[in-house]
């Protein structure tokens, strides 16, 4: 990560006081750390429960299937350890994209944060333990939309 | 030491920059056993951050389910040839790496 510039003692004191407040904000998952990153949502990635994982990222909102979300994934993944996924969306004001694999041991595979000016597009490769659906969830203007694709896995990517 | 991050960033029409990145990392899920029957400890990148002119243009939060030597593609507006793109990552063990690439 980038080096922190040296800070004079008075400023350091003020920052330390502010740090307590920032710490609380960071717990809410919306504050940006010094380097600009939004806090990593540990709990959502560590749960085996799909509903809990989604709640950890998106709260109580539910996704509506939309043909304005295009999920490209192979029909058959020969190697479950490397399954390419690409999501694009023509929806407006897209701020987040998430990949969920309901039949994976930990359903939430990845989440992408898209600032204003960046495109609703991401391409990534994930591991799938076995044949499962893959769900792409797109957050657009505060609402959730999804696209789902069934991916057959011939050799599981979790070492099984 | 060479960076673990390789980036290909190309500026196109209307200031749209297409970024393809490849990061060398084991992305061990912690769910696989080695030949002696012991679990290989989880070791995977958690956050990847990209900045252009000091502004965050993309953040990826990854789980143990992202593939080894992860590939990531994304696009953002407002960049041009010659601009710098910074990339950095932090993993679950607290290791990190970063690099700066030039948009072509």
Fold and architecture overview:
The complex is a heterodimer of chains A (160) and B (104). Chain A has helices at 9-27, 42-46, 50-58; strands spanning 63-65, 69-72, 76-77, 83-89, 94-100, 108-113, 121-126, 132-140, 143-153. With 160 residues, chain A is of the alpha+beta class. The relative contact order of chain A is 0.19. The model of chain A is unreliable at 19-31 (pLDDT under 50). Chain B has 104 residues and is an all-beta fold. Chain B is 0% helix and 51% strand. Chain B has no helices and 7 strands. In chain B, the strands form 2 sheets. In chain B, strands 4-3-6-7 form a 4-stranded antiparallel sheet, with no helix packed on it. Chain B has a 3-stranded antiparallel sheet with strand order 1-2-5, with no helix packed on it. The interface between A and B is large, with 41 and 37 residues.
Q: Which terms summarize this structure?
A:
heterodimer; A: 160 residues; alpha+beta; six-stranded mixed sheet; three-stranded antiparallel sheet; B: 104 residues; mainly beta; four-stranded antiparallel sheet; 51% strand
Number of strands of chain A: 9
Helix percent of chain A reads 10-25%
The unreliable regions of chain B are none
How much of the sequence of chain A is in beta strands?
A: 25-35%
Rg over alpha carbons of chain B: 15 Å
Tell me the major beta sheet of chain B. 4 strands, antiparallel
Based on CA atoms alone, the radius of gyration of chain A comes out at 18 Å
Order of helices and strands of chain A: HHHEEEEEEEEE
- Percent helix of chain B, as a range, is under 10%
Q: Let me know the number of strands of chain B.
A: 7
């Amino acid at each position: 990560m980038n080096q922190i510039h040296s800070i004079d003692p008075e400023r350091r004191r003020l920052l330390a006081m502010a740090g307590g407040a920032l710490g609380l904000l960071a717990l809410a998952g919306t504050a940006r750390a010094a380097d600009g990153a939004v806090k990593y949502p540990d709990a959502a990635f560590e749960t085996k429960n799909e509903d809990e994982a989604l709640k950890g990222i998106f709260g109580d909102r539910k996704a509506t299937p939309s043909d304005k979300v295009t999920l490209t994934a192979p029909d058959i993944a020969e190697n479950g350890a490397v399954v390419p996924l690409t999501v694009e969306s023509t929806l407006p004001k897209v701020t987040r994209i998430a990949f969920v694999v309901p039949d994976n041991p930990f359903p939430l595979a990845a989440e992408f944060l898209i600032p204003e000016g960046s495109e609703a597009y991401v391409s990534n490769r994930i591991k799938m333990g076995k044949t499962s659906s893959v769900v792409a969830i797109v957050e657009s203007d505060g609402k959730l939309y999804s696209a789902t694709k069934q991916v057959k896995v011939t050799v599981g990517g979790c070492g099984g | 030491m060479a960076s673990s991050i390789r980036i290909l960033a190309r500026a196109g029409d209307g200031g749209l920059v297409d970024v393809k990145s490849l990061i060398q990392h084991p992305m061990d899920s912690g769910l696989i056993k080695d030949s002696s029957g012991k679990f290989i400890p989880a070791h995977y990148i958690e956050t990847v951050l990209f900045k252009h002119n000091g502004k965050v243009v993309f953040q990826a939060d990854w789980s143990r389910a992202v593939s080894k030597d992860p590939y990531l593609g994304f696009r953002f507006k407002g960049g041009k040839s010659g601009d710098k793109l910074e990339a950095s990552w932090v993993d679950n063990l607290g290791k990190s790496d970063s690099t700066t690439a030039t948009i072509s």
